[in-house]
Amino acid sequence: MYYTYFLDASETYGIYKFLISMLRGLYRSSDSVEALEPLRAKFDEQHDRLYDFYAQCTAVRYLSTLITIPKLPFDAPTLADEQKSVSPLIEQGIVQTPADYANVQKAVSSQPTGAVANAYMAGKQAYEAQQLQLEQQRQQQLQQQQQELEQQRL
Question: Could you tell me the maximum CA-CA distance found in the chain, to the nearest angstrom?
Fold first, then answer.
């Protein structure tokens, strides 16, 4: 369960930023804003779902110690006018200005997701090895108990 959150949370913000830039490009190049309204409605819906997903990820304490979970504003960013739009990322409750956003963007994109993923997988493998060892010990104890019962019967 946590592994799914880990992969989704570490990848979705990049996809989210890409979608914002693509939709802004469409708005700039399109003559008809009304033609883009279905895309805007779908984007708003997906923004709300992503906002909720990041809130769920933040609630998982183990996950929030492994990766940086982005914080989105409650409302979706403005796509039609890029200059008036605020940053899609909020850090510690403060809306970043476009000048500050470049610094935040570098911090989010430079997180060691490969190293974190490797550490997570190593921890998972160690846990599985420990569980296997405990199961083997339990099986040995059961065999020993069965042998003792058979000796008592004789």
Answer: 94
List beta partners, residue 90.
95
Joined tokens for residue 5: 């959150």
Query: Is residue 97 within 8 Å of residue 40, measured between CB atoms?
Result: no
Identify the three-state secondary structure at position 78: coil
Same domain? 55 vs 129: no
Closest C-alpha to 63, from 72, 73, 48, 53: 53
- pLDDT by position in tens, the chain (length 154): 444 555 566 678 888 888 888 988 888 888 888 888 888 899 999 889 888 888 888 887 777 777 777 788 888 888 776 544 445 554 444 444 444 444 444 444 444 455 656 777 778 888 888 999 999 999 999 999 999 998 988 7
Is residue 23 located within the same domain as residue 69?
Answer: yes
Domain hosting 14: range is 2-111
Same-domain pairing of 80 and 106: yes
